[in-house]
């Protein structure tokens, strides 16, 4: 399993969370500018991506922070989640997310899936285990299994894998702004400052238009 961002690093960084102003965020320090920008889905929008894994404890802790922030983004910003897939259960959970998204039910069960893994100790490692769990949250079991194994979902899974490679990620959670800038909780200095970096880069991209 890939190394996660160390909790100790996040705790230490949070002590200084309010010190640095947005104007001081620098490439090579709080964020990395990708050498090869990745094309965005909609060039008319400023794209913000979060790469995550349902089994990642830091992703789980970040969710209550990033969710309300994402819900309040302005119209010219498009937020999207992409599952990180490094093999094994990462790929299974990535396919789970893509399936839920393709069925249009991801928003209503996203939090429940996170809680199932981290609070209820459900690994959700197989499609059948996923389907049984989701049935209790109003998702049709057979419809889920059919979608999970569909050609369309498998194609989107492969696309997500390619994006993860293009972004050159090595762990999660990671954020990407407009296919150009990569940063995470460790480099930014904690969850709240990660979103400050995101706001700073969104404004940077908006000003460049």
Automatic annotation (TrEMBL):
<feature type="disulfide bond" description="Redox-active">
    <location>
        <begin position="56"/>
        <end position="59"/>
    </location>
</feature>
<protein>
    <recommendedName>
        <fullName>Thiol:disulfide interchange protein</fullName>
    </recommendedName>
</protein>
<keyword id="KW-1015">Disulfide bond</keyword>
<feature type="domain" description="Thioredoxin">
    <location>
        <begin position="7"/>
        <end position="153"/>
    </location>
</feature>
<dbReference type="InterPro" id="IPR013766">
    <property type="entry name" value="Thioredoxin_domain"/>
</dbReference>
<dbReference type="InterPro" id="IPR036249">
    <property type="entry name" value="Thioredoxin-like_sf"/>
</dbReference>
<feature type="signal peptide">
    <location>
        <begin position="1"/>
        <end position="22"/>
    </location>
</feature>
<dbReference type="InterPro" id="IPR001853">
    <property type="entry name" value="DSBA-like_thioredoxin_dom"/>
</dbReference>
<dbReference type="Pfam" id="PF01323">
    <property type="entry name" value="DSBA"/>
</dbReference>
<dbReference type="InterPro" id="IPR017937">
    <property type="entry name" value="Thioredoxin_CS"/>
</dbReference>
<comment type="similarity">
    <text>Belongs to the thioredoxin family. DsbA subfamily.</text>
</comment>
<keyword id="KW-0574">Periplasm</keyword>
<dbReference type="InterPro" id="IPR023205">
    <property type="entry name" value="DsbA/DsbL"/>
</dbReference>
<keyword id="KW-0732">Signal</keyword>
<dbReference type="GO" id="GO:0042597">
    <property type="term" value="C:periplasmic space"/>
</dbReference>
<dbReference type="InterPro" id="IPR050824">
    <property type="entry name" value="Thiol_disulfide_DsbA"/>
</dbReference>
<keyword id="KW-0676">Redox-active center</keyword>
<dbReference type="GO" id="GO:0015036">
    <property type="term" value="F:disulfide oxidoreductase activity"/>
</dbReference>
